[in-house]
Design goal:
alpha+beta, disordered N terminus, 11 strands, 3 domains, single chain, Transposase Inhibitor Protein From Tn5, Chain A, domain 1, 21% strand
Length: 379
């Protein structure tokens, strides 16, 4: 996959001569007496800079401010006033429209996926984004598990707002042919209908927020689960042995609520037995699904955890997102989008076996060739 080089960003530091009649749709922003003009190309150029590593904006500016890096960057960018300082980057990130930035980066990445791909939906709170004027932002993301790429995101102010945010997020996505997975908070009839309207399958967790449905399904599996076909997987990692037993029931003629849920064709259970340090624990979870194949069901259930293990965990541990002090205006959301994009690119860059994400980022900060290898990694 080829990506075109974009020559934008042209001297954000001193773009004083922007035309006065520039329309608002071109994202013109005034910053301390200066005018910053952002078109559809420039957020990508911002990513090319931000991907290097952004533990703090002052360090970011210091690293890019060397004469060596400026000479190298001029191969890709127009820098008539030199490299902008950290305050300029901060002000730009505060004013860029997050939705526009997200769309621009996703189009630039140009990722495509096959039929049956799992799209996991879940939310994460950016803990450090809380300020006196607003609560911490809660971002609901749609994560393509196989490609480890965020397909889209939507911002809410509280976790409880996920119920209304997920249908809106689904409206903005093309999920046709995929399997949409979500936790029990998204076990809502409106969300299931949206997924079916998008011509996708679903696997959604079931808990106490649907008490009648949960009671009927749990009682059935309690009495008849041994009569159902079982798919078993075993994993051993970090001194932990886990056995999972997947069961799927496709005959729902006995279930009164069946007709109320669009496309509902089966209910499933996953019984996990975990042994660690000589102690064994068991846990059973229930799901509603439009799938009828037990192997596809087990695959989708397992893949859903990738949004926790490969996205949210990485944002917290690798990028230390919760410690970020960016709070003003749009900066927390824009940096969240940049981190997700950088994460996807870093994961697909091949630097050899056992090279951690942090080592990849540090290597890219020191070596421009490594940086380009990450930037143009094939997704």
């Amino acid at each position: 996959m080829q990506r075109r080089r974009l020559h934008g960003y042209g001297g954000i530091r001193g773009a004083r001569a922007a035309p006065k009649n520039t329309e608002k749709s071109s994202a013109v922003q005034k910053t301390h007496g200066r005018v910053v003009v952002l078109d559809g190309r420039q957020p990508v150029c911002v990513l090319r800079l931000a991907l290097r590593s952004l533990p703090s904006l002052p360090f970011f500016s210091l690293f890019l401010g060397t004469a060596l890096r400026e000479e190298w960057l001029r191969k890709f960018l127009e820098l008539p006033h030199g490299i902008p300082d950290s305050d300029t980057f901060r002000r730009v990130f505060e004013r860029i429209n997050p939705e526009t930035l997200s769309e621009c980066l996703y189009d630039w990445l140009g990722c495509h996926w096959e039929k049956g791909t799992v799209i996991a939906i879940d939310g994460k709170t950016i803990c450090g984004s809380k300020s006196k004027s607003h609560k911490a932002y809660h971002v609901v993301s749609a994560f393509v598990a196989e490609h480890q790429l965020v397909l889209g995101e939507l911002v809410t102010e509280e976790k409880s707002n996920e119920i209304t945010a997920v249908p809106e997020l689904l409206d903005s996505l093309n999920v046709e042919g995929s399997i949409v997975t979500a936790d029990a908070m998204s076990c809502q009839k409106t969300i299931v209908q949206k997924i079916q309207d998008g011509k996708a399958d679903y696997v959604i967790g079931l808990k106490g927020n649907q008490p009648s449905l949960l009671e009927n399904i749990s009682l059935y599996f309690q009495d008849f689960s041994k009569d159902l076909p079982c798919h078993v997987t075993r994993d051993k990692d970090h001194g932990r042995i886990e056995k999972r037993e997947y069961r799927l029931l496709t005959d729902l003629s006995w279930l009164p609520e069946c007709s109320e849920w669009a496309g509902l064709k089966a209910v499933g259970s996953v019984c996990s037995t975990v042994t660690k340090n000589g102690t064994t624990s068991m846990d059973t979870r229930f799901f509603i699904t439009s799938l009828t194949d037990i192997e596809r069901f087990s695959y989708a259930v397992r893949k859903h955890w990738s949004i926790e293990n490969q996205l949210h965990w990485a944002l917290d541990i690798v990028f230390d997102e919760d410690s970020s002090k960016a709070r003003k205006d749009m900066s927390p959301l824009n940096l969240n989008i940049l981190r997700k994009t950088a994460l996807a690119l870093c994961k697909h860059a091949d630097f050899g076996p056992r090279v951690s994400m942090k080592k990849k980022r540090f290597s890219a900060a020191l070596d421009p060739d490594r940086f380009l290898a990450i930037l143009f990694a094939k997704l």
